[in-house]
Amino acid sequence: MDSTTPDIDDLATLLFSLPTERLTTDAVTALLTHEIAGWAVMRGWTPRREARVVLPTMAELDVDLRLGYIDLVISRGGRDPDLAIEIDSTQKPWSLAKLRYAVAAGMHGIWVRWGATDWAGVYDDVDVIQLWTVKRALPRPRATSQLTLWS
Length: 151
What we know:
Strand order of the largest sheet: 1-2-3-4-5
CATH architecture: 3-Layer(aba) Sandwich
Number of helices: 4
CATH topology: Trna Endonuclease, Chain: A, domain 1
Radius of gyration: 18 Å
Distance between the termini: 69 Å
Order of helices and strands: HHEEEHEEH
C-alpha cells in the first residue's frame, strides 16, 4: 500500500456520502468538484481547477499535440505526488488519456466516474471512484407556439 491509498479511500468515502440523487447532471458535477476542492483545502493542499495539459493525440501518439484540461490538479507538497482528477458522467477515453499522461509525469491519477450506466473499468495506473447516480438533465423550457413569436 502506498502513502496515497488512505487519502483516496477518504476521498471515496466523502464522495459516496454526498446527496446527489435529486440533482441535475451539471449540479452533480459542480458538487463533486466543490467537495473535492474543499477536501483538498482541509488537508492544507492547493487545488487548481481546469489545469491545462498538452499531450500527444491518442492516434498513434504521433507529433500532433492536443490541448486539454484536467478537471482538478491538487498540489500536495512534500513527498506525496500531486493528484490529477477527472470528473465524468460518461465514459470518455480522452479523460483516461489525460490522466495517464499526468501519471507518466509523476502525478497520481484519479477518475471520478458517476452515472447509472457504463462501468469505468479497472486500471493499473489510474484509480477509479465509481459513483452510481442517476443523470438528470435540466428541465426543458415549455414549448411556445411558433405563432406567438411573430405576433
